[in-house]
Amino acid sequence: MSAAAYDAANPQAQGPATALGVHFPATNGSDRFALGVTKFLRLFADTFFAKRYGHRAVVLETVAAVPGMVGATLNHLKCLRRMEDDRGWIRTLMDEAENERMHLMTFIEVCKPTAFERFMVIAAQWLFYVFFFGLYLLAPKTAHRLVGYFEEEAVISYTHYLAEIDEGRSENVPAPQIAIRYWNLPATATLRDVVLVVRADEAHHRDVNHGFANALAGLPQGPIAACPTHVELVPNWKAAA
Ligand SMILES: [Fe+2]
Ligand SMILES: [Fe+2]
């Protein structure tokens, strides 16, 4: 079932506005490349994880947190070289990377990866970091389009995760404390509430990245789904010293 069909049939599933079912049509070679890579990786993820959505979330969030930091690094260096303003791109991309890392910190409380999945994470990080760094260096528009398509798939996957919870195949356990603090959720929040806000985060990343790709292509940015509120993370390394 598509994300949009699931939400149409389950109006109670609607969390923070996510504009489900959004798809940016691929109209040129660059977009088609990004979409093709996304569909290939989706097939791989569907085959490997099937309906193990907790494991899927943990492993894929380790990858999802990479592009924002790569984009922020390369834009930072470009702005230094050109001595020009970044128009807020660097902070936005760093926020995306931090937000994805908080998704990981949340789901690791819900589901423990297997030893093989931990090995996969290490291998995938090497491969994906090098691939994405090279892609962003050569074709930043394609890189942002790729992330936009990844995030379209993330919205769909978290919608399927919601269905698993609603249909009783995944237990609707209490929300991890880290998630309650980060999204300022009520103390009684459950996994379902967490998946709703994570999905809304992914919809926001989707629109921001398609918007950045559009900006680089000279196209209008397009609408951006609202980002759920997150508390600002306060550095606590001094306390640990
Ligand atoms: Fe995520
Ligand atoms: Fe995301």
From TrEMBL:
Gene3D superfamilies per UniProt: Alternative oxidase
Keyword check for Transit peptide: no
Ranges annotated as spanning the membrane: 119-139
Subcellular location: Membrane
Pfam families found in the cross-reference section: AOX
Protein origin, superkingdom: Bacteria
Keyword Iron part of the UniProt annotation: yes
Alphabetized UniProt keyword annotations: Electron transport, Iron, Membrane, Metal-binding, Oxidoreductase, Respiratory chain, Transmembrane, Transmembrane helix, Transport
InterPro entries, alphabetized: AOX, AOX_sf
Names of the cofactor(s): Fe cation
PANTHER family according to UniProt: ALTERNATIVE OXIDASE
Protein name (Swiss-Prot/TrEMBL): Alternative oxidase
Source species of the chain: Phenylobacterium conjunctum
